[in-house]
Amino acid sequence: MEAGDPEGAVRGALTKIHSVERLVKDFSPGSSEELVQRLNDFVASLGKVREATGKTEVEFPVELIKRLDTGVNPDKFVIDALHTCVVENQKVKGKATNLQKFHDALVEQATAAFPVEAEAYRKLKSNPGSG
User: Fold this and answer.
1) Residue 83 is part of which domain span?
2) pLDDT for res 15
3) How far apart are CA 108 and CA 87, in angstroms?
4) Looking at the predicted structure, is the pLDDT value of residue 54 above 90?
5) Do residues 90 and 119 share a domain?
6) CA 130 to CA 80: how far, in whole Å?
7) Is the pLDDT of residue 21 over 80?
8) Where does it primarily localize (predicted)?
């Protein structure tokens, strides 16, 4: 593993924790020294992760951490986040459409009530550089 290789460092830490999990699953009284050694290896690998990331700042959404703690697949979090974005995008698109309809109706009514001013407005809008 190269220095500054966060992915490799994380893979190494995951390998170490997996070996700890396997040993704990099949734990017997005679394997306590081996467990201590594997735990120490895991802790050392966490130090390597910290070194590999250097001064890189990484932020994770709190909701993602909570879901991971409850055993939810992180891919499900991403899918849910994308779904939420799509829903919010549709809401904003609807608001923009309604605002455009309101603008069009307002211009139409202003044209009927103030034809001279509306014509001046249209000229200004079609040629914004002059005036």
Assistant:
1) 73-131
2) 93
3) 32
4) no
5) yes
6) 49
7) yes
8) nucleus
